[in-house]
Amino acid sequence: MNIQNTILGLLLKEPQTGYELKQLFDSSLAFFSGASFGSIYPALKRCEKEGLVNMEMELQDGKPNRKVYYITEAGKDIFLKGMQEELTISPYRNEFLTRLFFFADITAKERTHLIESYLNYLAMRQEQIHSLADFAKKKADPYQILCYRFGLRFVENLIANTRLLYKELKDMNK
Amino acid sequence: MNIQNTILGLLLKEPQTGYELKQLFDSSLAFFSGASFGSIYPALKRCEKEGLVNMEMELQDGKPNRKVYYITEAGKDIFLKGMQEELTISPYRNEFLTRLFFFADITAKERTHLIESYLNYLAMRQEQIHSLADFAKKKADPYQILCYRFGLRFVENLIANTRLLYKELKDMNK
DNA sequence: CCGGGCATGTAATCTGTTACATGATTGA
DNA sequence: TCAATCATGTAACAGATTACATGCCCGG
Known about the structure:
Two copies of one chain form a homodimer. The radius of gyration of chain A is 21 Å and the shape is elongated. Chain A is mainly alpha-helical. Chain A has helices at 3-13, 18-26, 37-49, 73-84, 95-101, 108-130, 133-138, 142-172; strands at residues 53-58, 66-71. Chain A has a two-stranded antiparallel ribbon. At the A-B interface, helix 1, helix 4, helix 5, helix 6 and helix 8 of A face helix 1, helix 4, helix 5, helix 6 and helix 8 of B.
């Protein structure tokens, strides 16, 4: 699922502006997706040109006008096709594991620091998901709640795994 | 860590050709990294131009000549700088979780199929790591063994998590 | 005789981010 | 007064992949 199809999926739930889509990418979707304005706005224009969405301008005073995008039947078709395609996972690059692979080349202090940085990062990710509890309770559909719970367990597992690694590292020097 | 620095790290352990580096990316590093020839060969050329590696041609008959690359002191410096930089994790896109977020839009059959596909994928990943057992026992340094063990637990957790998700999904229809 | 392994490389393409540009309002 | 929020957009760049091009040897 590229950004375009993810946007179509979001518009299927509710018509939105590019700005609001960005906020969704930064909150509800932040754990497993993301997008910058530089990719959202061009994608919306492309979709409009191809008839996948319609745009309606909402005039505002004081603030810039809002361009609200609605998905079309053609857009829905494209989105569903993407959802039904065989699942192909593009090889994902894990920065932490790559560095761990080369731990022999740095000092003990640097090793410790890297693991602690990673644990800090994971704590931040965990908070990020926890902050979605409200969304999960109020606006999420049952499957999005599964998604939320899956994410929670995923981070918990990662943290436990990293702590174990930390322990193993310490035990090596005994 | 971009591909260039990963290559430098590998050359620090042992001088290699681009072809051999590709094999490493496809085996030992496959779980958390990856690279195509189209990125490896240009990276090696760039490194040579910048004095980060030296090249020695090994003439072969029957087969094409091998270009063996050796890391230089300058190359080692660059690699270590990369290792010592603050850990920054670029937001990673999870194809499966993205689709799960939109499960409400597809049929029950398609939902089941997607989860099963993901479990198949994870089983493949698990096999991929298991196939490194020999490497871990013979050629890996102690930290690479930690990396290997971390990876094993990571997939195991993911599989358990996905099975739980599967169960939760089934329980929804009761 | 054909596919796969060995071995190198380039060009076109893709998909996205970062940085820049604009500009009004609101709250600390 | 200064930063943040609302709101849209473009241009330059980055970092890779895919497909193509070459060519010999070996085993089934």
